[in-house]
Design goal:
The strands form four sheets. Strands 6-5-4-7-10-15-16 form a seven-stranded mixed β-sheet, with helices on both faces. 48% of the residues are buried. It is globular, with a radius of gyration of 20 Å. By secondary structure, the protein is an alpha/beta fold. It has eleven helices and 16 strands. The chain has two domains: 131 residues, Four Helix Bundle (Hemerythrin (Met), subunit A) (Up-down Bundle); 205 residues, Rossmann fold, CATH 3.40.50.10470. Strand 12 and strand 13 form a beta hairpin. The model has no long low-confidence stretch (mean pLDDT 97). The chain binds 5-S-methyl-1-O-phosphono-5-thio-D-ribulose. The site of 5-S-methyl-1-O-phosphono-5-thio-D-ribulose (MRU) has 18 residues, from helix 2 and strand 9.
Amino acid sequence: MTSIKFKNKRLFYLDQTQLPLKEVWKECRNLKDGFKAIKLLEVRGAPLIGVFAAYCIAINLKQLSGKKEIFLSQLAESLRQLGSARPTAVNLFWALRRIKQAANKAKAKDVSFIRQVVLREACSIHKEDVLLCRRMADQGVGLIKKGDRILTHCNTGSLATSGEGTALAVIFAAAKKYRNHLLVYADETRPLLQGARLTAWELFKKKIPSKVICDNTASSLMAARGIDKVFLGADRIAANGDAANKIGTYGVAIAAKYHKIPFYVVAPFSTFDLSLRSGKEIPIEQRNPDEVRKIMNKIEVAPGEAKVYNPAFDVTPNELITAIVSDRGIIRPPYKKNIKKVIGTHPI
Ligand code: MRU
């Protein structure tokens, strides 16, 4: 399964806001389309946002000036604009930085050469992302036993990356290994229901046994000894291992700790932000109040004038995380030391 396609220098994406009811593919023709797709969560999930943004910059280059100086300043402005689409997932900034560095290295050459270099860099970010997903699956699969009942939150599969996923890739690998002898509980993930709409859809397509639960069911299911492990993703991990992920993750982590259930975060090296000492420094996106007042932007469930607090992410402190599964290895506490050892001092 794939959620973006780059064909004949054209960029297409599956509009995730319409899933699972409709599978609608759209074309991203320019920066404005790309910004809107990311902002509205038509394209979402930390690694996928990075890959998509890199391609978006590359296709937009043909609309920039042919004069090098103007071209370079327009490119810088495009990078800045796209980087303002969403603030939390660091993969967006990581991918844009790679594009910037590639363009900088080529800046002595002519505009058409710089265009080629940027496009090549976007393609390699894409290819690498597919590979990183495979590596995370290989690293993490050994943590799952036959028959495990696994809880996940939000969506971390083929819709959140350009490969098999992060946490879901690990689960997919285990499902294959144990011929579906496991059970996945997908938190519905209010307010935008990435778990119910997207994770359930991916699991269903792969015929992996699964059940959707309301977010507020997880702790009682844990108390009833119905969950063996938690696997989920991250949007940004600080140098001390604090991890930002979809709102509700922190509550799951607290409940898991209380019930002595292992809590695993799965993320590629591009999700680490070692410039931040702790999760307190991670910028948390605040989103449109209507996402809470309405379901799927349609059915009103709160009065139109109700005030709303709608952070898209929360931060799970490192002491609640059993291990972080990265493409470069499984990282266990003490995180500050071991993240440095496994990821290095700089993620690029
Ligand atoms: O707001 P979203 O849907 O982009 O949030 C996505 C998540 O929080 C995922 O859990 C995260 O990106 C993990 S990685 C695949």
